[in-house]
Amino acid sequence: MERGPGSVEMLVMEKLFAAFKGKRVLVTGDTGFKGSWLCLWLTELGAEVTGYALPPEGERPLFDLLGLRQYMRHVDGDVRDLDHMSQVFAETQPEVVIHLAAQALVRLSYEQPKQTIDTNVGGSLNLLECLRASDSVRAAVYITSDKCYENKEWVWGYRETDELGGRDPYSASKAAAEIIFSAYCSSYFDSRPGFGIASTRAGNVIGGGDWARDRIIPDCIRALEAGQPVPVRNPHATRPWQHVLEPLSGYLSVAAQLLHQPKKFGGAWNFGPPVGSVRTVGELVAEAVKVWGEGSFQVSPEANAPHEARLLQLNTDRAAVDLAWRSRWGVDETIDRTIGWYRQVIRENASPRAVCQNQINDYMGTSR
């Protein structure tokens, strides 16, 4: 690789991520949107990646579009199955574990609360049990959500020490997963030498290759591709939008640091964009239509819609001070990169893998 006009921070990140070369890394939830991006990035860094998750689901799953089975090992499995997951740990002897597997949709949690809690709480508990029994793992990143906080809709960001809670099944499941994480750290992990574990919290991630239902960008693309107006349920709701590579870079940064200083970099971490990245849903959709090049949107309020938070922001001071991590792409570039991915893949027939690789290289400040 030749270095482009990147910053010193990007060079530091590149050197830090060199820690993954040759490492055995287990990723739960590898077939999901974030998991697919993460596994591509890890394979590009030279890691030996094993994924554990349900088979890819839905339309045009990114995992399949990226051809990841050619570059890593994937095991079909459910995090609710402790025996099977324990078997995979024993077979692969991972050195690094990144736990992404989850039921990740707030609205679906209202329809399927038990499945959501069984997966997000029970599945995470199973992961912790596998870590407790493992002698090979040196670093683990346990990913929850910004929605683990008791959301008071403050205008300032939540800190890692703020109160946990949730009024919907999804948020409650993430808060519960964090409480169990803390208990396992105090009871088992804090005293284990040579082992580090951290929980990470992020939300409102967008990026190319997401096709989940009831998410604003996939809804936009499906409508634009079909030549129909984009339906917008709540145009005035605000979100701190961030590109998928932003939190993933945070997870990788924490994991790499845990390998070197496991106790210093443990605990909870927030990863999110600066306050200036807050945009309303209406503003996001209007910009998405502009980047796509044609189309329109219409407000379509939903009667008796389940509650969704209108405002939730994170304070990322700890990541900035202790990890030298910061958000790299502003909201305008985030939208441009996201919609640009779909435009290139759908309208220009570009390789999804090549587009993702190019975006990772741009984010890292490198070019081939």
UniProtKB/TrEMBL annotation:
Keyword Lyase belongs to the record: yes
Which Pfam families is this protein grouped with? GDP_Man_Dehyd
Q: Which UniProt keywords apply?
A: Lyase
The segment(s) forming the NAD(P)-binding domain are 26-337
Any GO molecular function: CDP-glucose 4,6-dehydratase activity
Q: Which SUPFAM superfamilies match?
A: NAD(P)-binding Rossmann-fold domains
Q: Which EC number(s) are documented for this chain?
A: 4.2.1.45
Q: Which InterPro entries match?
A: CDP_4_6_deHydtase (IPR013445), NAD(P)-bd_dom (IPR016040), NAD(P)-bd_dom_sf (IPR036291)
NCBIfam families given for it? Answer: CDP_4_6_dhtase
Q: What is this protein called?
A: CDP-glucose 4,6-dehydratase
From the broadest rank down, the organism's phylogenetic lineage runs: Bacteria, Pseudomonadati, Pseudomonadota, Alphaproteobacteria, Rhodospirillales
